Amino acid sequence: MTLLCASSFSLSSLLLVSFLVVLVSHFSESEAQPSTAIAEGLSWIFHRSSCPNLESIVRNHLKKVFKKDIGQAAALLRIFFHDCFVQGCDASVLLDGSFANPSEKEAPPNFTLRPDAMKTLEDLRALVHKTCGRVVSCADITTLAGRDAVFLSEGPDFAVPLGRRDGLTFATRATTLANLPGPGSTADALLRSLGALNFDAADVVALSGAHTIGRCHCNSFTSRLYPTQDPTMETTFAINLKLTCPTGTTVNTTVLDIRTPNKFDNRYYVDLVSRQGLFTSDQDLFFNERTRGIVTSFSKDQKLFFDKFVNAVTKMGQMSVLTGKQGEIRANCSVRNSDNRFFLPSSVVEEAVEEWAQI
């Protein structure tokens, strides 16, 4: 009897364990998320039914893009940042304007957003909509592309909540300028600007780590070289920069992270500790008493940086999002549906997804 009970118990236990393994596996795949709160209307599994292959479509296409041009990883991540910090993550930065009504693209901070990266986002939208119908917004696609830009550059992989809708308007030049701190900003200015958006010092330093990949134009930092050299800049680093940027008006470009320019890692912080940060907004993080310790910690502990970056960028990706019946799902990322002569009314599938999102 004891043996029989033991055998029965083992079988029951096995079934229970199997069930728990499946359950845990289910949640680890879809809901093992950063520790940040989720904005109302977003979900970790928003497109599971309406577009189950969404994330693989985006990632597989970007693998091909980055194989040909790894520079687009930083370009897509930058678009994601510039979109979210100006009136929220609503893909408004992708909208075209006109001579009389210039869009966010025409504001100075966005002059150097790469057109080919914008095209990549539109290509992704076309692929996703061809497969699933018009049920995924350009804002969600921009978010996924930003996440995959990090992962496919050897950075951390992480889940992102989805369900954003696309904005119907773009920000003015003044609003864009006010919400995108420039490369000459001090650490105090960054802390004030982002602090007003509920980002703490660790968030600010972690988000600045996006500069571990990418390139920039000389005129973004030549004020630190000419007419006199910024004393906080390491001498040999400055000498080499002057070879790339021989005058204050040179239009050349250089890498943001001299150690591993195409790899998303913590070497950006090693640059700062070595006084080899390119922008004032970067290097001053090491000299500011509120951020110096964080920079030093990240330079020594890549996992710590990754963890803080994932939480901060997930928080950023939920800023002032449009959800539910707000906004729209664009049929072309650069054009509002009301201005798109090829636009077709919402499909039954999209309406069903909208109703599901309200549950």
Describe this structure in words.
It contains 14 helices and two strands. It has 359 residues and is an all-alpha fold. It has a two-stranded antiparallel sheet. Helix 2 (54-68) crosses helix 5 and helix 10 (267-273) packs across helix 12. It starts with a helix and ends with a helix.
Summarize this structure as a short list of keywords or feature phrases.
single chain, two-stranded antiparallel ribbon, mainly alpha, globular, 359 residues, disordered N terminus
Write the layout of secondary structure elements.
Elements: H1 2-30, H2 54-68, H3 71-84, H4 115-132, H5 138-151, H6 173-179, H7 187-195, H8 201-208, E1 215-217, H9 235-244, E2 253-255, H10 267-273, H11 280-287, H12 292-300, H13 302-316, H14 348-358
Antiparallel strand pairs: 1-2
Helix pairs in contact: 2-4, 2-5, 3-4, 3-5, 4-5, 8-13, 10-12, 12-13
Structure annotation, total helices = 14
Radius of gyration: 23 Å
- Provide the low-confidence segments as ranges: 1-32, 347-359
Strand tally: 2
Query: What gross morphology would you assign?
Result: globular
What would the average pLDDT be, to the nearest integer?
89
**What structural class should be given to the helix and strand makeup?**
mainly alpha
What's the SSE pattern? Answer: HHHHHHHHEHEHHHHH
Proportion of residues in extended strands: under 5%
Kindly state the percentage of residues in helix. 40-55%
Strand order of the main beta sheet, please?
1-2
The biggest sheet, with number of strands, parallel, antiparallel or mixed sense and barrel status, is: 2 strands, antiparallel
Distance between the termini: 51 Å
